[in-house]
Design brief:
Elements (H helix, E strand, L loop, with lengths): L1 E4 L8 H10 L5 E3 L3 E2 L8 H7 L9 E2 L1 E3 L3 H13 L4 E6 L19 H14 L3 E7 L8 H8 L7 E4 L13 H23 L15 H4 E4 L5 H10 L5 E4 L1 H5 L16 H18 L3 H15 L7 H9 L3 H8 L5
Parallel strand pairs: 1-2, 1-10, 2-4, 3-5, 5-6, 6-7, 7-8, 8-9, 9-10
Helix pairs in contact: 1-10, 3-4, 4-5, 10-11, 12-13
Length: about 325
């Protein structure tokens, strides 16, 4: 199983990625929080700093782009190629209320014809391989078959499916039946292409024309939080090779680590060492203690799942106003 770290805005930046990888490892690729394009395709300086190779040593990083303008996508991807990247990811999943009204992120799913034209242009002109991260619809999973028909036209490096709609945000159950539908459709397409090829045919679409099946393209995303969840997926989809996890790696860090020198997420001592190491790294790059304190409180809002018996201490962490107070509280958390 390949493990991909999902992007979380404001959390999984280059400081976090370097520190997480140092303590835990086990991640095959990290995806950046989305880069917004501008005229000329160049991102903000803060976003550029986040993807600079020198700020991400020793890890595989995939920059994510969010836009509805094909020319800006291609220009931004070209800039990323100059930095040494070979792949970019298209964001069709962000449900934010500041993004969707602009038709970006999951908002793009409401306009399938426009999306199809956009994909045609970027796949024709982009110098890098393109993967797609998408939700399974805007209002309903019933929208997904039509979306998949569009996606299948193009040579996707990977299709990462967050198995909720935009209107579901991150609430409620995911829809694994939609993932199964995608799996079976891509499987049929690959089988059909293979038959066409053996008969001298040319193949029906760009992605099918590669002869790749769902195990080569699909990545599962949504409500995978523990090693037990991964085992359940292995049982449901024995050929599944890819899973993307975000909040699960925050609440149970390290469970994807396969290196015996790395920590298992049940090792509370290493989790505490990680959280202290992360604080030290933030103190090097953030100005003043308040931004650092905010970052650490945000981390503990996820980490409390690994320390359920310390819930009262977590409530005290939320009330701290200075790093000195915060450090005094976490000193009481036992490894």
């Amino acid at each position: 199983m390949k493990y991909y770290f999902a992007p979380l805005e404001g959390i999984t930046g280059h400081v976090f990625r370097r520190t997480y990888d140092r303590f835990f490892g086990g991640i095959d690729a990290y995806y950046t929080p989305f880069v917004t394009t501008r005229d000329g395709g160049i991102m903000k300086k803060k976003e550029l700093r986040d993807i600079l190779p020198e700020n991400n040593p020793g890890i595989t990083l995939i920059p994510q782009i969010m836009t509805t303008k094909a020319n800006e996508f291609v220009q931004a991807a070209t800039h990323m190629q100059e930095l040494g990247y070979t792949e970019v990811n298209l964001n069709l999943g962000c449900p934010s209320g500041t993004v969707v009204p602009k038709g970006k992120g999951s908002g793009f799913l409401r306009e399938p014809e426009k999306l199809d034209r956009f994909l045609y242009e970027i796949y024709e002109k982009c110098p890098l391989a393109i993967s797609i991260k998408a939700r399974i619809g805007f209002h309903s999973p019933d929208e997904f078959p039509a979306l998949l028909d569009i996606f299948k036209k193009y040579p996707m490096r990977m299709l990462i499916l967050h198995l909720r709609t935009r209107e579901e945000w991150y609430e409620g159950d995911v829809h694994p039946e939609t993932f199964r539908y995608a799996w079976e459709e891509l499987e049929r397409g690959a089988a059909s292409t293979g038959a066409d090829a053996s008969a001298g045919g040319s193949g029906a679409s760009a992605s099918d024309g590669t002869g790749m099946g769902p195990q080569d393209i699909l990545c599962y995303n949504g409500d995978v939080k523990t090693a037990e969840d991964v085992e359940r997926l292995r049982s449901d989809f024995p050929e599944l090779q890819r899973v993307m996890i975000g909040r699960g790696f925050l609440s149970h860090p390290g469970f994807a680590g396969n290196d015996s020198k790395k920590a298992d997420y049940t090792d509370r001592k290493v989790v505490l060492e990680f959280i202290r190491g992360l604080q030290e790294e933030y103190e090097k790059v953030l100005y003043g203690e308040i931004p650092v304190l905010f970052k650490m409180k945000e981390m503990w809002s996820h980490l409390i799942d690994s320390f359920p018996e310390d819930e009262k201490l977590f409530k005290r962490i939320k009330k701290t106003k200075h790093l000195r107070e915060y450090e005094a509280v976490i000193a009481q958390i036992s490894a």
